[in-house]
Every structure is written in structure tokens, then in C-alpha cells.
Amino acid sequence: MQTPGAWRLTARVFLPFAAGYYLSYLFRTINALIASHLSSDTGLGTADLGLLTSVYFLVFAAAQIPVGILLDRFGPRRVQSGLLLLAAVGAGLFAVSSGFLSLLIARAMIGFGVAAALTAGLKSIILWFPRERVALLNGYMVMLGSLGAVTATVPVEHLLAWTGWRQLFEILAAATGATAILIYVVVPERGIVPSTARATLGSVFGDRRFWRVAPLSATCIGSAWSLQGLWASPWLIDVDGLDRASLVRQLFIMSIVLCGGAWLFGTTVHSIKRRGIGTDTVLAIIAVLFIAAELALILRAPLPSILPWSVIAIVGTATVVSFAAIADYFPPELAGRANGALNVLHFGWAFLAQYATGLILEQWSANDGHRPVQAYQVAFGLNVALQIATFVWFALPWYRSIVSWMSSILFFKPADVSYAVESIGLYEDSVILLPADDDAEW
């Protein structure tokens, strides 16, 4: 088969899958804007709202590995179009549901239906585009997809001014169904290499280097998704006292920052790799900034709230960095499975964080419909404590390397005979107990 030209490939492959990922991001973040409408129209409590929104992440996480296997076997065109049809049905069911259970089932159908949105797009890029352009196009895919978060702010707010949230989901159902048909009709087929998933998944989950990076990445990125996808809105209303117009404006700014984050992280990773700097260093810096931003909110630091919330928003696109760090640990034939396994933890943690936050907030009674600041401080503080713990685990090999290096300095330092003997013992102990460097086989 002759490969189509670059512009034709962009129109027939890249843009249809980017549209699917755009809808995925829109569904992910839409509940932050319609949360008050859902609560007033259906009588949902804080815990129910947290579960309803977070079940998207739970189903999404559970589907990652099976979806990856389906993509390898049947190709992104058929898998993505079929799943998007399921998401369209889920959106239609959400529009007509009035009870909590039917809303929960509909939200779960949406989550499963868009579970392949990003991975199908990335796989289509690998199948159809030159290898040297894959990283650049991946960044563009994430950037365009995150425009869904932008749409879920001011544009949707204007739409809600003349229609209700139910009509909004009817429109989304129609758009999702149309995108599914577009992908099936327009995207060309491509030969698929048989999957080796069963032979490689154990290699990913059994690698200790994976378990060094994954907990930090999951607790930070998953929490960022949880906060922007739902809990930023209640915080800005209950704690910062924003009115509806100010709330929508701040969510809009956060979503714009989110879009820029994908481009920024992609450019940064490309630049540091050329300079020989480890990608995990960037991940550590992102984690520190994220924790600092959350602490600024919790401790009520005298800063404009848009600053820490913008940091939280931009961390939502740090998957670009995490996937690059994981790719350094595995050969190319394992990179896809490693990214899929990491995505399971990202979305699994987003579910836990989003639902648990709702449960914690429910322990405080609302005063005139508003939760006290202490409720949010406890809920957010628990997240931060877990992130600090995973950061310590992530940085432990660095700490060991520093200790080993300091021990070697003591060994080479001129001293009397008795001091040298003591230093030799200390150095030998450090060599026996500690890895020589961070890249050693775990």
C-alpha cells in the first residue's frame, strides 16, 4: 500500500483520533461545571457526586490493558469507532436519567467508551507517521485533546444559558456517535503486528524501577485530574467565595494552562534528552511544585488562588514526562505495555482520590450549601501526605547514591591509619548494601 501524503494523513488519521481524544477530555472534566446542576436536579449528596464523577476513572483504568490488547489485535480504527459508539449511548442515557443508579451506569459507559481515546490515537500515529515525528505528534495530540477541558468551561457555560445539562448531553451523544462513524469511514486500515502482551506485561509489573516511578506519577497526576475534574469548583465556591461568573473564568484559565502544559512538557523532555539529563529529574521537580501548590491552598497562603490552581492544572499533562521516564527503563517493544500499565495506576488513583475526597467532605455538615474550609484542608491534606510518601520512595535511590558518594569521599580523604581503616569499613559496607547508581538493575 502506498503511504498517503502528510496532509492527507493528517486529515484522515490524526484529526479524527484527535477529535475522539477531545471528547474524552470533555467528558472527563464536564462534571466540574455542571456539579451544582446535578445536585439540585437529582438531589445528589457530596459523596454520591464524587462517586458518580470518579466512576469514569475507575472504568477507564480497568479498561486500559484489555483495550491495549484489542488495539494490537484489531487496530485503532475498529476499536476506537466501536467504543465511541458505546460512549454515545452512555451520554444519551445520562441525558435521560433521573436516579443515581442510572446516572452511575451511564457515566461508567462513557468512561469505558472513551477508554481507548488517547492510546488509539498514539497507536495510529505509530502506525502511519514517520518515527522521527511520533514524539512531536504525540504532544500535539495531547494538546488538542485537552481543548476539551477548555470547552468544558466558558463555551459550555454559554450553552447552559439557553439549554439544560440534559440537552447538553444529548448534543454530546450525537457528536460522539458522529465521531465514531467518521473514524470508521475515513481512517484507512493498516496491517497490525500480533500482540505479545501476555509475554510482556509480567516484565513491566515485575520491574522494581517501574514501581519506583509509578506511585509518584499516579498520586500526582491522578490527583490533578481529580481536582480539576470535580473538586476545584466546590473549593472555589465554598472556600474562595467566587460567584458563578468568576468560577467559570478561573476554570477557563486553568484549562488554557492545561493545554499549554502538554506542549511545554513535550518540548522540555525533548530538550533535556538531547542534553543527557534524566527524565525522572523533571518528574521530581513537577512533583515538588505540585505538592507546594496544594500546600499553598491548604495553608491559605497569601497568593492569588489562580497561581496554585494553575500549577495543579498543568500537572494533569505530566503524563508526557512520566511516559518518557518509563520508556527509558524498557525496550521499544515493551514501551506500549509499560505506558498502559502506568495509565491504569493514573486513572485508578484519580478514582480513589476523587471518591475519597467526596467521602471526607461529607463528614462535615454544609452551612447554606457550603462546606467549611477545614473539610477541604483535611481531604486535600491526606492526598498531599500520600504524595510526600511516594516522593520519598521515589528519591530513596538518589539518597542512597549520595550516601555512597559521601562515603567514598571519606575513604579518599587523607587521614591517619586508624581513620583510614574505619573509612574503608564504612565504604565497603556502603558498597555491599547500596546500589552503585540509580540506573543499576533492581
Condensed summary:
The chain is an all-alpha fold and 442 residues long.
What is the element layout, followed by pairings?
Blueprint: H1 6-42, H2 46-74, H3 76-96, H4 100-113, H5 117-128, H6 134-145, H7 147-151, H8 154-160, H9 165-186, H10 197-205, H11 208-238, H12 244-274, H13 279-298, H14 306-315, H15 319-327, H16 332-361, H17 373-412, H18 417-433
Helix pairs in contact: 1-2, 1-5, 1-6, 1-9, 1-11, 2-3, 2-4, 2-16, 3-4, 3-5, 3-9, 5-6, 6-12, 10-16, 11-12, 11-13, 11-14, 11-15, 11-16, 11-17, 12-14, 13-14, 13-15, 13-17, 15-16, 16-17, 17-18
Task: Describe what this molecule looks like in 3D.
With 442 residues, this protein is mainly alpha-helical. It has two domains: 9-191, MFS general substrate transporter like domains (Growth Hormone, Chain: A, Up-down Bundle); 201-395, MFS general substrate transporter like domains (Growth Hormone, Chain: A). The protein has helices spanning 6-42, 46-74, 76-96, 100-113, 117-128, 134-145, 147-151, 154-160, 165-186, 197-205, 208-238, 244-274, 279-298, 306-315, 319-327, 332-361, 373-412, 417-433. Helix 1 (6-42) runs antiparallel to helix 5, helix 3 runs antiparallel to helix 5 (117-128) and helix 11 packs parallel to helix 16. It is globular. Residues 195-199 and 415-442 have low confidence and may be disordered.
Structural key phrases:
442 residues; Growth Hormone, Chain: A; 2 domains; mainly alpha; globular; 18 helices
